[in-house]
Design goal:
Number of strands: 0
Distance between the termini: 22 Å
Number of helices: 5
Number of domains: 1
Strand content: under 5%
């Protein structure tokens, strides 16, 4: 499976907004599995930024491989707020990184 190609015209703001939106959904979830699921689904709605936001989320969680991210999140976090905090860290990482 190939990684989606990022449209260079997309702004960093769009990527950060996707992560912050996912963080809001995760924080409002009743459980960690639900928080991970809704965040994952939200980030999949914009295929143009998909690879970038998942790499940022993985980096914020200290995970090298995107496929390992879901399992790590479920093992590491005990509240939806912790999932949301990781998404907010990812957004901050993107804000502090020049546009790709």
């Amino acid at each position: 499976m190939t990684e989606p190609t990022l449209n260079p015209a997309l702004s960093q703001d769009l990527k950060v907004a996707a992560l912050r939106g996912a963080a809001g959904l995760a924080a409002a979830s009743p459980s960690v599995p639900d928080a991970v699921r809704v965040a994952w689904q939200h980030l999949h709605t914009n295929r143009a930024v998909l690879a970038v936001v998942f790499r940022a989320w993985a980096a914020a969680e200290g995970v090298a491989d995107i496929p390992d991210l879901g399992g790590v999140l479920r093992r590491r976090h005990t509240t939806p707020d912790q999932v949301a905090a990781g998404l907010r860290r990812a957004a901050t990482l993107l804000e502090d990184t020049p546009d790709e």
